Amino acid sequence: MSITKFAAAFKTLLVFTANIYAQEMDTAYVPFIVNVDAAVTVQQGTTVFEKEVEANKADTLIITIAKGSLASVLDGARMQINTPALMSGSHGKISLNLPIHSYKNADISLYSLSGKRILRTKANASEVHRNISHPNLMAGVYLLSVKSASGQSLSNRLTHRGGNLNINVMFGGSENFSTGSPMTAANTASTGWTITVSAAEHADSSYTLNLNLGSNSLQSITLYPNSIMKLPNRPLTQTELNAWIARYGVMGGPSEFELEVVRLINIERTSAGRTALEIDIPLMMATRFKSQNMADLEYFSHTSPIYAANSGDYSPGIISQMFGGTRTPSENIARSSNATPASIVNMWMNSEGHRNNILNANSRTIGAGAYSVETIGSNNRPRTETFVTTNFGR
Description:
By secondary structure, the protein is α+β, with helices and mostly antiparallel strands. It is 23% helix and 37% strand.
């Protein structure tokens, strides 16, 4: 679905739910959009609502709150509000719509997956609108965190393609419910509903949501295949590359194995009087991709048969640039069964060319990527073979 069509569908959906909100206050309307055909289940105790949704088509799950004795709602300033703010974005532009009461004093931060804070600012509801920008931000997966003075918080992972990042902050997003709105007691309380979105051959998405009586924020869900996509014997399309990057973020970014390789390399550098290298997320993604490329296409070389069309092309640079990294990184590769970070780094340090790359005084950044596959050894027994790549940037 194009961004234009998505925006139009979402606008229509908001108008639709806004009109209903004015007419019905004993029903919750939860709009969903999922990237694949899926089943959406909303459950609290024994109360269950289900709906089938089509891929990339906005639809609304209608949850009827049983009529009964009504309980009064706490004053809005003291209510626990956990409903996520509405976030949307494309091409480096993020819109963040915060509920005006619960997030009237917001502390907004952007972090890299390594935990480094990239930017931080404060926004106040009295401003109504605030724009935050970061020029020339490297491509990668980041965490956007918002905290309020009253203790509310939310976070969301963002995949950025590189270049300028603009965050447009507005106030006026929906709260859990308006002060004085009726809610039913017992098993029809609006808090603690479990949302589960499932599809065949995809991992489920499950989380807890506090429902508004009336309209609720759009739930935009991306489900990922149970198995990692095997790389084809051709260049990835941009859509496939975007999916690979998103999957990298969902899997948690750099693995413990990869981070340990970086740590051990930095120990070797500092012991030799060199400066420690900083983790570079584009290079971390590029090296994971290169290791998987070698494993899936069954080759072991600095030159990829796919990403070096001409004999003079520099394959590590081509792959690095796919993720917004440097054009000319130096590269170490390794292939080993029963590999550990220590065994890989020791093997490189005992090879003159690899050791020179590790100790190069001009290097400033590093990426490390590992990918393991199950193979059959010479004794016809299964074994785990790990491909490891490091890139060094300047």
